[in-house]
Amino acid sequence: MVSRVTDDYTSMVTAGCRAVCEPAFWAGFDRKSARGFEDYFLQLTDYEPRRAKKFLLPHFCWLCINPKESEDVKLAEDVLALIPELLDRPNVLGIGEIGLNKNSRNELRVLEMHIQLAVDHGQLILVHTPHLEDKLKGTKLIIDALKSFSNIDAGRVIIDHVEEHTAKLVLDQGFWAGMTLYPESKCTPARAVDMVELYGAERIWMNSACDWGVSDPLAVPKAGLEMRRRGHTEAVVDRILYQNPISFLSQCPKFRLEGEST
Amino acid sequence: MIDVAAFLDRVQRFGLDDDYRVQALKSAMQELLSASPGRVERVLRAMSDATEEPVPSATIQGAFGAPRPA
Questions:
Q1: Do the Cβ atoms of A163 and B58 come within 8 Å?
Q2: Which of A44, A106, A249, B14 makes the best surface tag, with the fewest CB within 10 Å?
Q3: Does residue A205 sit in helix, strand or coil?
């Protein structure tokens, strides 16, 4: 994880994490050219899996230009041109995290370019939805954009950062719903467990935010603890925290975990 | 609840009681006293941008917690 220290890898493995899936995301600053992304993609597909391996943690990633840097369409076109030749890298799972940030026309155009790229190359898709006041509108625009592609298989798309007002919208359209957990903002472990109780265990997963801001690589194990506190069975905890992610990710033939038959 | 009360006192003390985000917060807080389940979804919807069309351009990258007045 490019924004985390090696202690985080140690903590994750100690807590029982079996793999890390890192989306291409905002670096905390806007990159000035496609060359910055070229280096970043090499970091995600070459250096970072080797670093994680030292801590016995298989590393997978997703590639894209993230929505926060998608207002510049020319930059996005240049970055997207880099991606096809990297899709065969052994740890690349698909295109992501694409989506919207401020719900602008250019962001939407770049989202559509990414979806087309994923369709053309048969890739899984990981989608980021905007935050706070922009989330509901952005989620609706993203669903409309995905649905405008007649050959999109909703079961191969996960729409992330769902909250209580967007989870059902996503699930009702056949997509997977991701809940990214934060310790003190956005979706907390307790609220994520609430949503599991409200919407069920089908096509839903949790992941820990591990970015440049206040975030916690152990948020998912802590959500498991919250589920056990509420009396959920080990089978349900295992399904949400482990089996569901494996089900979705195994649609990419490169996703394999040692000891799993998927 | 004490933090929220302190926050409302603070913004008033600094003359920001009319800020659109404070107004949106106060409006959404009415849901907390509702007897019906679904409070969190209604609060989130109350703080959401209700427009449907993409904005012409992204002039900022962050979010504020409530839609800015037109």
A1: no
A2: B14
A3: strand
Measured CA to CA, the distance from residue A249 to residue A93 in angstroms comes to 7
- Residue A261 has a pLDDT of 67
User: Which pLDDT band, with edges at 50, 70 and 90, does B62 fall under?
Assistant: very high
Whether the model clears a pTM of 0.90, i.e. scores above it, the answer is yes
CA–CA dist A85, A87 (Å, integer) = 6
Determine how many CB atoms are found less than 10 A away from the CB of residue B47: 21
Band (B70; pLDDT cuts 50, 70, 90): confident
A5 pLDDT higher than 90: yes
Peptide bond into A97 cis (omega under 30): yes
How far is CA A127 from each of CA A58, A184, A231, B43, rounded to the nearest angstrom?
22, 22, 31, 24
pLDDT, one tens digit per residue, over B5-51 is: 999 999 999 999 999 999 999 999 999 999 999 999 999 999 999 99
Instruction: Find, among A47, A130, A125, A144, the residue nearest to A83 by Cα.
Output: A125
Q: Which positions 28-57 of B are in contact with A (Cβ < 8 Å)?
A: 40-41, 44-45, 47-52, 54-57
Run of H or E including A217: none
Torsion angle, CA of B51/B25/A194/A24, rounded to 10 degrees?
60
Residues in CB range of A97: below 8 A, 6 or more apart: A23, A24, A25, A62, A64, A66, A67, A126, A127, A128, A160
Instruction: Provide φ and ψ at A249, rounded to 5°.
Output: -70, -30
Nearest CA of chain A to the CA of B18: how many Å?
A: 18
A21-42 pLDDT, tens digit per residue, is: 999 999 989 999 999 999 999 9
